[in-house]
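Hi R.,

As promised on Friday, here is the backbone we talked about, encoded as structure tokens. Could you run it through your design pipeline when you get a chance and send me back a sequence?
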């Protein structure tokens, strides 16, 4: 069999292939940074407010979470929308905020202290109490408490049909 000559790859092409196989050195995501000593979590234009209502059957617990706009988008929440869920089936946004559920103890709630936390979506501020107009509301209801609704909804009475069996 005749020998075929393969064209040799240049050193520049080989280094390009090596760099491609290794992949990018770092992936940059846009996050708000401190500018002139001002924290972006304290600026109203750069933040969104999330109201957490945890109803365990006795008395609902109200917690406010302040996150950056980018974190709000990552959680895929809509503005001025109320989300109701059961505590064993949380939506994605609530799963990101699980650390904030128990972040405040009784003294923090009484003295209205503000806590800063680092979550997987970024930094946030946790405050006890209610917002006047939150950007999103997450209501977490206990599983056995299905009949009770935190957001009172007007429901039409269902028509009862009597079925006669032979």
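Update: got your reply. Pasting your designed sequence below so it's all in one thread:
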């Amino acid at each position: 069999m005749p020998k075929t000559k393969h064209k040799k790859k240049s050193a520049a092409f080989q280094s390009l292939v090596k760099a491609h196989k290794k992949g990018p050195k770092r992936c940059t995501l846009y996050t708000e940074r401190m500018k002139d000593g001002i924290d972006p979590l304290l600026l109203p234009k750069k933040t969104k407010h999330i109201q957490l209502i945890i109803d365990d059957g006795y008395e609902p617990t109200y917690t406010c979470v302040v996150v950056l706009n980018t974190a709000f988008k990552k959680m895929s929440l809509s503005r001025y929308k109320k989300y109701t869920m059961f505590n064993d089936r949380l939506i994605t946004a609530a799963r990101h905020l699980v650390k904030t559920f128990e972040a405040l103890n009784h003294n923090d709630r009484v003295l209205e202290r503000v806590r800063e936390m680092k979550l997987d979506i970024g930094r946030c501020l946790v405050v006890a109490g209610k917002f006047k107009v939150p950007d999103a509301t997450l209501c977490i209801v206990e599983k056995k408490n299905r009949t009770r609704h935190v957001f009172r909804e007007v429901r039409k009475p269902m028509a009862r049909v009597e079925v006669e069996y032979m």
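One thing I noticed while checking it: Helices lie at 11-22, 69-74, 92-96, 98-101, 106-111.

Thanks again,
M.
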